[in-house]
From TrEMBL:
Protein name listed in UniProt: Uncharacterized protein
The organism's taxonomic lineage, starting at the top: Bacteria, Bacillati, Bacillota, Bacilli, Lactobacillales
Record organism: Enterococcus faecium EnGen0003
Length: 105
């Protein structure tokens, strides 16, 4: 049972003046995008720093799930939230506004 789900996907150009992104890229394929140039402007699409930071975040989520699975909490009793996370090429991750995920009826 996973208490925290991390949905890592998509790649975007690190150039703030470029709007290139490909949200179909899966996390498993990130190493293929490492240090690749943006097809639109030539800037880096994924730095080693951002890949390392993303991998560290994955490790934190996995550890959190390991700790919580033996805590006695029931996943079905917990609300679900979405927290957007973005990388900018420096290895620093920025976390967006936390929003409650509305249950589909």
């Amino acid at each position: 049972m996973e208490f925290v789900d991390l949905n890592v996907r998509g790649i975007k150009c690190d150039n703030p003046e470029c709007d290139y992104s490909d949200m179909a890229v899966k996390y498993e394929n990130y190493p293929q995008w490492l240090n690749k140039p943006c097809p639109k402007c030539g800037a880096n699409l994924l730095t080693q720093e951002d890949l390392d930071a993303t991998e560290q975040l994955m490790e934190i989520v996995n550890l959190t799930n390991e700790i919580l699975k033996d805590s006695g909490l029931e996943k079905q009793d917990m609300n679900k939230y979405i927290v957007p996370v973005e990388a900018n090429g420096t290895g620093e991750l920025s976390f967006g506004e936390i929003k409650k995920l509305e249950e589909e009826k």
